[in-house]
Amino acid sequence: MDRLDNTIRPYAWGSTTAIPRLLGTEPTGEPQAEMWMGAHAGAPSRTGRGTLVELIDAAPVKELGPESVARFGPRLPFLLKLLAAGSPLSLQVHPDLAQAQAGYEDEERRGVPVTAPHRNYRDANHKPELVCALTEFDGLCGFRDPLRAAALLDGLGVDSLKPYVDLLHAQPEEAALREVLTAVLTADPEEMARTVAETAAACDRLGGDYAPYAGIAHHYPGDPGVIAAMLLNHVRLQPGEALFLGAGVPHAYLDGLAVEIMANSDNVLRCGLTPKHVDVPELLRIVRFESRDPGVLRPEAGPDGEEVYETPIDEFRLSRYVLPASGAVHDLTLPTPQILLCTAGSVRAGEHELTPGTSVFVPAGEKAEVAGTGTLFRATVIA
After folding, report:
1. What was the pLDDT predicted at 74?
2. I need a labelling partner for 365 at 20 to 30 A (CA). Which of 59, 230, 327, 334 fits?
3. Alpha helix (H) ranges present in the chain?
């Protein structure tokens, strides 16, 4: 096993305290938004043998196993993160695999630099993701039923929202959601800023179901994403609960600390709540305009105390072990690569003592015995 030294990303939306509190370190006063564990070129984990990218490049079959290499190629298919939201992330969607491949090839052919701020596709991969709460965790996930969205908007008593309410009532579901999101994102900026200001004031006054949107508007005054966010389901996860975000599902994380796992990609199309580029035509092509239940996931019991978060994705598999004080040894050896992350207590993994926020990489087939008292997340693939 290799103990991982991981990069913490200081994105502006990050909490200044959540990751330091987990790690038992002093806050720096700067946001600490995400800690990346994996072999993403942007911030690969470091080991005593080099970066995880260097280890895998030097011996992909040895590190990843023949099944994983045959299925996903000579790269770690997933990226594991600690995510600490102190303010809302951008409202966004991710493409499916075919859309990502076509979009990436098109931008490459047109010579759009991969670092350009208006670039949509940084790679040719999809980015399904699973977020599992470590604390209470607020988010937005998937469209509400249009009539429920209409009732929420209508309850604010803001005249400039009435056309959206009427559209949500008048059209079939897909057309209603598409037309309203299109109208919100293409509205005159000055008029929209006034609408958002009135909406924010009404949300502040009413509270209750409107409180999350008052908070969003506080962080993003005048942003059309505030109105777009009200078309989505608000969900509050309790520790141990999770959400799966598939292709085309609009979502945003608002507040809290979580473990997040995703396919190893950086493809994001934004809908708002951001100063970054919003490509409205491409976004509208990718979004799936269908209402859905947020689909809160709870882990399913597996063998030897493993609790599995089931998803329809093979590039990653997330599970956890809540280890009692019995001292029992659990054999986690697999023919696929693994990252083990401790989030509570103290867990011994091989020769490594893991405390909250620390992690190890386990090459495919490497003996992986763990024991201790605490919570351990396991990330691997289904090959």
Report:
1. 96
2. 327
3. 18-23, 52-58, 60-64, 66-72, 97-109, 146-154, 162-170, 173-186, 189-206, 211-219, 225-229, 280-286
Separation CA 363–CA 5 (nearest Å): 16
C-alpha dihedral, 195 to 198 to 204 to 210, nearest 10°:
-40
Whole-Å CA distances, 244 to 192, 247, 264: 31, 10, 15
Does residue 57 contact residue 71 with C-beta atoms inside 8 Å?
no
State how beta strands 137-143 and 78-85 pair: unpaired
Contact 30, 23 (CB under 8 A): no
Instruction: Write out the DSSP string of 297-339.
Output: B-PEE-GGGEEEE--S-SS-EEEEEEE-TT---EE---SS-EE
Active site residue 270: yes
pLDDT computed for residue 327 by the predictor? 77
Decide: 44 and 264 in contact? Cβ < 8 Å: no
The rounded distance, in Å, linking the Cα atoms of 121 and 176 is 28
Around Cβ 300, how many Cβ atoms within 10 Å?
Answer: 11
80 CB-contact burial (10 Å; exposed 0-12 / middle 13-18 / buried 19+): buried
Nearest in space to 291 (alpha carbons), one of 185, 159, 152:
152
> What is the rounded CA–CA span in Å between residue 134 and residue 67?
32
Of 144, 270, 320, 378, which residue is the catalytic one?
270
**Residue 78 near residue 261, CB atoms below 8 Å:** yes
Cα 257 from Cα 224, distance rounded (Å)? 26
User: For the residues 23-47, what does the mean pLDDT come to?
Assistant: 95
Question: Tens digit of pLDDT for each residue in 93-103?
Answer: 999 999 999 99
- The Cα–Cα gap between 266 and 13 comes to 17
Closest listed residue to residue 234, CA positions, set 250, 218, 248, 246? 250
User: Are the C-beta atoms of residues 267 and 121 closer than 8 Å to each other?
Assistant: yes
CA pair distance 183, 19, nearest whole angstrom: 39
Please indicate, yes or no, whether the overall pTM of this predicted structure exceeds 0.70.
yes
